[in-house]
Amino acid sequence: MESNIVDVAIVGAGPAGLQAAIHAARKKATVVVFGKLEASSIHAAHVENYLGVPGVIPGAELLAAGREQASRFGAELREADVLRIDEGEGKFLLHTETGPCQARTVILATGGARKKLKVPGEKELLGRGVSYCVDCDANFYRNAPVAVVGNGSAAVDGALTLLGYTPQVFLVSERLEISEELRAKLYQSQINRREGVWVKEIGGVSAVDSLLLTDGSRLPVEGVFVELGAKGAIELAMNLGVLLDADTMTHIETNKRQETNIPGIYAAGDIAGQPYQMAKAVGEGCVAGWEAANHARAQRRGDAV
Ligand SMILES: Cc1cc2nc3c(=O)[nH]c(=O)nc-3n(C[C@H](O)[C@H](O)[C@H](O)COP(=O)(O)OP(=O)(O)OC[C@H]3O[C@@H](n4cnc5c(N)ncnc54)[C@H](O)[C@@H]3O)c2cc1C
């Protein structure tokens, strides 16, 4: 058996990911959970409709208890974002902010759809220079000046990807919150960093022509990529050929076992569809963790043959 492969890699440390970790780890699978505590949408919420919890409880408290529970059962929690996932011979290679991780199965539990900037011009110019997906749209901006907006790993990774298409890449961020490894890559690159500022308005009439920043300066760009937080599950899924729900195209399609169309890849929680509720997220997380552990065990037996 290859000892450097984990049975279950979980992308997301919210209710779905942590519950999946608990169930997979209790089935004796080796488990690694990637994700940042404060990025879960329950972190800042107050919950009063979760079974067995009387009164109103801060979401942060529930998460802290869930993390402690998951690690007590043996799951390893890593405060790092996953940037990309590749498949090879039925196994998966996760490229993360802090290095690679190989896994037999992957559970996508990254929470809801991409966040918006909520500035003038964003909605009006969507699809005409405004994009939420570097991996999908970079090719449209070959040799054109572009800007990526965001403070997290998705923005930096997106800006580095865009350098393969155009030499003119701005990165606009209020305060970068990324790993030291990713920061080193950014500082060594040709990306034009505008730190300590934010976007006031996206300019243009029929297409984007500029970006007005909060310090009053204006960047002449043809493309604006809004990449807030971590890489969304949709982009991670797209790279693997995971199918989306045909009605919304914003959720990952799963069956009752939380399996996607790719064997070994599961999805759970908000990313697998409505209702966006913790009870549903932990229910799906339980099923995904259970199924992924079984799948990994069967694969381990195959490896040993
Ligand atoms: C203001 C507010 C109030 C709410 N109140 C309630 C309530 O009272 N009751 C209720 O049941 N529900 C409530 N919800 C909904 C609830 O928060 C969600 O349904 C629940 O958190 C979904 O869990 P999840 O694990 O699917 O996603 P999330 O909790 O959003 O967790 C997503 C995780 O994925 C990680 N992640 C994302 N991308 C990556 C990546 N590329 N690499 C690594 N990690 C990644 C994040 O860091 C995070 O840890 C509320 C939501 C909000 C916004």
Overview of this protein structure:
The protein is of the alpha/beta class. It has helices spanning 15-26, 59-72, 134-137, 153-162, 180-188, 233-240, 278-304, and strands spanning 5-11, 31-34, 46-47, 57-58, 76-78, 82-88, 91-96, 99-108, 130-131, 146-149, 169-173, 192-195, 199-204, 208-213, 218-219, 223-226, 265-267. Strands 1, 2, 5, 6, 7, 8 and 17 form a 7-stranded mixed β-sheet that branches. Helix 1 links the parallel strand 1 (5-11) and strand 2. Helix 1 (15-26) runs parallel beside helix 2 (59-72) and helix 4 packs parallel to helix 5 (180-188). The chain is globular and about 55 Å long. The N and C termini lie close together (10 Å). 45% of the residues are buried. The model has no long low-confidence stretch (mean pLDDT 92). The chain binds flavin-adenine dinucleotide (FAD). Residues 11-17, 34-36, 39-42, 45, 47, 49-50, 81-82, 109-111, 230-231, 269-270, 276-279, 281 line the site of flavin-adenine dinucleotide.
CATH architecture of the largest domain: 3-Layer(bba) Sandwich
Q: Could you spell the SSE succession in H and E letters? A: EHEEEHEEEEEHEHEHEEEEEHEH
Strand content: 25-35%
Poorly predicted runs:
none
Q: State the major sheet.
A: 7 strands, mixed
What ions, cofactors and ligands are bound? flavin-adenine dinucleotide
First and last CA, distance:
10 Å
Count of helical stretches: 7
Mean pLDDT across the residues is: 92
Number of domains: 2
Helix content: 25-40%
- The CATH first-level class of the largest domain comes to Alpha Beta
**What would you call the structural class?**
alpha/beta
Radius of gyration: 20 Å
- What best-fitting shape do the alpha-carbon axes yield? globular
Secondary structure tally: strands: 17
Going by CATH, what is the homologous superfamily of the largest domain? FAD/NAD(P)-binding domain
